[in-house]
């Protein structure tokens, strides 16, 4: 345990004093939530996020130049009573989902594209690619292309998830035909529930990212154009 804490502290130090800096036009909206300025619940959540996320997203995506957690994780640490539950849900989406990773990552990217959530797309494009989503699908999904444009590009179950996600994002509803097609492709009521909860989780994550204008690591290209001030 002591060795793991020492490694964690060394990683935080490296994030504070070396490595990539955030590309931000101004100061962060939310102050960095960093040790040793955390109370016990904040520190517990901070440590849990580092332990679980480092191997998934890597140091540059996890930490900003102030040593704070990037993504939705700095806001989660700011409010650990709520943040720990969102973190548990996001972890369950990854670890306990009945959908294959390539399917739920397509749904997450559809949500991220709808919200134009820079960090969400930045992180999950890599995860979707690693899960086996076809390279040709990414520019189309990023452009919020209609589902028919991705026929033959996405696998049938990926396409069904994408079609449902796009319809929900565009209209705030899902038609009977779209729902039935998705259920036929995904195979069960549990799969449909998991798809809905995945989209709900990452809609919440996108809200947090956009409210706090979470920056990408230095040198990372913004997936979506920012509106002019």
In words, what does this structure look like?
The chain has about 230 residues and is mostly helical. The chain folds into two domains: about 1-20 and about 35-95, no CATH class; about 100-205, no CATH class. Helices cover about 65% and strands about 0% of the residues. The chain has eleven helices and no strands. It has helices at about 1-15, 40-55, 60, 75-80, 80-95, 100-115, 120-130, 135-140, 155-170, 175-185, 190-210. The chain is globular and about 55 Å long.
Helix-strand string: HHHHHHHHHHH
Helix share, percent: 55-70%
The chain-level structural class is: mainly alpha
Q: What is the strand content?
A: under 5%
Number of strands: 0
Rg over C-alpha atoms, rounded to the nearest angstrom: 18 Å
> What is the 3D form?
globular
Low-confidence blocks of residues: 1-7, 9-25
Taking all residues together, what is the mean pLDDT? Answer: 89
Number of domains: 2
For the biggest sheet, the summary is: none
Distance between the termini: 48 Å
Number of helical regions? 11
In short, what is this structure?
Helix content is 63%, strand content 0%.
